[in-house]
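--- STAGE predict ---
source: upstream dedup step, 1 unique chain passed
mode: sequence only
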Amino acid sequence: MEAPARERSRQLVYQMHDSISIPEDVPDLEVRRGEEGIVRELVMHNESVTAFVELRYSTGQTKGWVVVEVMPEEKVLSVLE
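--- STAGE serialize ---
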């Protein structure tokens, strides 16, 4: 993930986050495989890495969250509404 973008000694103007493709359909949130979400946090535990991913409507409002395992295998672990 990229570091927050700053303009010379001013306050933080915006923060960029990485996008990730959702690896499978999530019917509870009406999300199809391949739609993108925004990675808000990565957590490493033993040999696996999971991402907390925010899914948004086109309006920018949060639709829901999914926890996606990104290593060693991409799959949705849970859905948070």
